[in-house]
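stuck on this chain:
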Amino acid sequence: MKRIVIILLIFLPMIANAQSDRQFIREGNRVYRQKDYAKAEVLYRKATAKNPENSQAVYNLGCSLMMQQKDSAAVAQYQAAAKLEKNKFRQSKAFHNIGVICQNHKMYGDAIKAYEQSLRCNPKDDETRYNLALCKKLQKENPQQNKDNQQKKEENNDEQQNKQNQKKDKNNQQQQQQPQEQMSKDNAERLLDAAIQNEKATQQRLKKAMQQPRKKNLNKNW
């Protein structure tokens, strides 16, 4: 049976201006221990909003998301926490939990990579070592599962790429239509100006004709 380790990071002494985010972490940890993971998520998000560089808040947010089975969002937070965190022990916990999520989804290749990263940060972590060995065993026993997961991952990547390409094509079409619309507007304005000039010229001709003296036709006697 695989072993899962989820450890909330307790804040360490930090700079004075981070008091507000530390307070949110305290409150989040309290409700997390009460298993109110949704409320803990809210509090951890408030902490990260106050201080996006607080790796502890980011990591703990990942834990609250993971416990709500929001796995993809949790992985994103763990990855962010691992980048922000300088402490190798805490980095190892982030990678470990990424491995657990991948393992739960039978993505054994990705789980193995995450566990190996975790062990690089903390070679003495026996739980991670156990999970790594188990994933390697399961990967050998389920080669088709790994192939299907990889294919699904590639299909998702292709789908995202297609969406991006469609968005680009739509933007290009809009950009192409804008000059045409502008040209049509310019043509309409030129036609209107020409009509106005013609009207003015006609009025001037009529006015000039009205001002000229009329010649009387005289009837001659027979």
User: Anything to note?
Assistant: Helices lie at 19-33, 37-50, 55-67, 71-84, 88-104, 108-121, 126-141, 143-211.
